[in-house]
């Protein structure tokens, strides 16, 4: 892949399985011996320090953090709904003042709410509300418990033109972030990525806006692929799926292109552990024929007890960008539901209408179409995803 442009700061190629096994053999020496042993961490300490396991267990009991607790300790202090009055800590006082300020000043409340929308806050919340923090959840059934695994942080970005210059760093608009497990298939991530184009329903519905015979694009055009380090991971789970990569591979193989070699695999047969990736390098997810998303692996690390423990929660959505709604051009209140071409009631062409305004302006009292225009169902990204 000599012609591939690498972004500044990307890492060398990492083989995820190798990464996992190397770390695992040094951090968790018990792997492969007996995973059901009570406590792999104590086993590791016992081996490293060359002391019997019983001694480590005893030290755990005698010197563990639990010994720091007193009998009358309040449980789940951080989860309290109201702050008790008898606490004399400066941080608690400040927190109290903050809450009072928000309650008394509506302007300040709006300001704070705006700040809370920021992605950093969203991500912080996601990271703190881990499975171990929430004791109200029922225990995870054993078949869904995760033992040893790696977690990959994957971000999905809106596609941009990379530009011709090698020195210009492209601007990538962050759209979604996921945590996936190494032992999950690529297709599991594909199924979680939301794109408004999957919800498109083709065709002009101006004659009968109540017609519900259309199909979502995702149910009709189900093919797609990830392109990562010279490999097309195709989604061929459906019998009518196409290999989108055929035409690209044919083009790349032409003389003088200097690209390739490119190979193919199936995404539902490939684990994230099988991937070879560079952290920080943009790869491609393509579906619906030509809907492109940039996909970046930001981090690979070992699965930790503080992570969500239920396998069913992965791939786990860690962040989703909020977009401005596309509002109705008439009432400027409701989200757009219709896209029209040739409408005499619209200030622009094409134009956007909410359902009420669209029907009120384009149909008579018997529901008959007035004038000649075309109407397409419109799905607003912020409203439907
Ligand atoms: Zn898309
Ligand atoms: Zn409207």
Salient structural properties:
single chain; 385 residues; alpha+beta; 8-stranded mixed β-sheet; 3-stranded antiparallel β-sheet; 11 helices; 13 strands; binds zinc ion
Report what the structure shows.
The longest helix is centred in the N-terminal third of the chain and has 15 residues, at 90-104. This protein is α+β, with helices and mostly antiparallel strands. The protein has three domains: 77-131, no CATH class; 148-320, Structural Genomics Hypothetical 15.5 Kd Protein In mrcA-pckA Intergenic Region, Chain A (Roll), CATH 3.10.290; 338-384. The chain is globular, with a radius of gyration of 27 Å. Residues 30-36 have low confidence and may be disordered. The protein is built from eleven helices and 13 strands. Bound molecules: zinc ion (2 copies). One zinc ion (ZN) is lined by residues 195, 197, 287-288, 291, 293. One zinc ion binds at residues 328, 330-331, 334, 353-354, 356-357.
Largest sheet: 8 strands, mixed
Task: Give the count of structural domains.
Answer: 3
Query: Which segments are poorly predicted (pLDDT under 50) over 5 or more consecutive residues?
Result: 30-36
Bound molecules: zinc ion
Could you say which structural class the secondary elements and strand pairing correspond to?
alpha+beta
- Percent of residues in helical segments? 25-40%
Report mean pLDDT, rounded to a whole number: 83
Kindly report the CATH topology of the largest domain.
Structural Genomics Hypothetical 15.5 Kd Protein In mrcA-pckA Intergenic Region, Chain A
Strand ordering within the main sheet: 6-5-4-8-9-2-3-10
> What is the CATH architecture term of the largest domain?
Roll
Q: Assign an overall shape.
A: globular
